[in-house]
Write a structure and sequence with these properties.
By secondary structure, the chain is an alpha/beta fold. The chain has twelve helices and twelve strands. α1 crosses α7. The protein is globular. It starts with a strand and ends in a 7-residue tail after the last helix.
Length: 299
């Protein structure tokens, strides 16, 4: 297949590009920069210039290919809701091109949308709408439902809050940065609230399997179903040689800032149906093993 990949030079997208090419597919990668173009060429992919704000560039990229994997997202959490609405428009634009063709589209969301309450295990069968959740990322899943109704073969790939590997610049590095700044590695309350996680290379394989399978559905990329945040904080403390300390929910906002709500959530997730549908199994290190290798603490 010839596959259009958005976010092709990002942390997850670059692994997907390598996975697809390694399996014999051709890749057309979206990029907005010369640096990104050079990285795509070096990886053996073709270059498609454009941005998420340029919907025509997305439509033309999708029109040239047999399938689309959409991973790009504007990671500015000060404008999170606005960026989620941008994603709604992006998915709609790509859907305009793919409608009625049976060409697969895989869009990206989060495992948190598979749960209807804090502490409930997220499952693939739970449908997310603005009636079931106030999470802004529901825009992506509502957009997927809208284009599915127009005849698009669309699947939803839900990622956990930690997609980890060397080069990660997501939530775990944010925690490490806060711990360095504050001199303690904090968790909230008893730290029993859980985070799911997956290794980047396991997630990349799953994207490929969903694309190749061609059967629309919702899938969970979950390696670790739910790691207590206290364990994460203790591992960070171990490698930074600082104490892991409990702080109260009332202290969390002052300590973690905007990140307090994310780290205080109890959001375990299951990938049971994903395992059954695709035979996918994570084979790379889990989050705690990955953290213990030390590369997260080298800078």
């Amino acid at each position: 297949m010839r596959v259009f990949v958005t976010g092709a030079t990002g942390f997850i997208g670059s692994a997907i590009v390598k996975e697809l090419i390694g399996a014999g597919h051709q890749v057309l990668g979206l990029t907005r920069s010369d640096e990104g173009a050079n990285a795509l060429i070096a990886a053996g992919a073709e270059v498609h210039r454009g941005t998420l704000e340029d919907l025509d560039s997305l439509r033309s990229g999708a029109a040239e290919c047999d399938g689309v994997i959409h991973t790009a997202f504007i990671h500015d959490f000060s404008k999170f809701q606005q960026n989620c609405e941008t994603d709604r428009q992006v998915i709609g634009a790509i859907g305009d091109i793919l409608a009625g063709s049976n060409r697969p589209l895989v869009v990206t969301s989060g495992t948190g949308l598979g749960s209807y309450a804090n502490g409930e295990i997220a499952v693939e069968g739970n449908v997310a709408t603005s009636k079931t959740t106030h999470h802004p990322r529901v825009a992506s899943e509502e957009a997927a439902a809208t284009i599915a109704a127009k005849g698009v073969n669309v699947s939803i790939m839900r990622l956990p809050p930690s997609v980890h590997d060397k080069g990660d610049h997501g939530f775990v590095p944010i925690l490490i940065g806060i711990a360095r700044q504050k001199g303690i590695s904090a968790y909230i309350g008893d730290g029993a609230n859980r985070w799911p996680a997956v290794h980047r290379l396991d997630a990349a394989l799953l994207y490929r399997l969903i694309l190749e399978n061609g059967v629309a559905g919702t899938y969970h990329a979950v390696g670790d179903a739910g790691i207590p945040t206290r364990q994460i904080a203790e591992m960070i403390g171990k490698h930074l040689n600082i104490r892991a300390v409990s702080i109260s929910p009332e202290e969390a906002a002052a300590h973690f800032g905007w990140f307090a709500g994310f780290f205080g959530s109890d959001i375990p997730a299951s990938a049971k149906l994903t395992f059954e549908r695709l035979g996918w199994r994570p084979t790379h290190p889990g989050l705690m093993e990955d953290l213990d290798q030390g590369h997260y603490f080298e800078s």
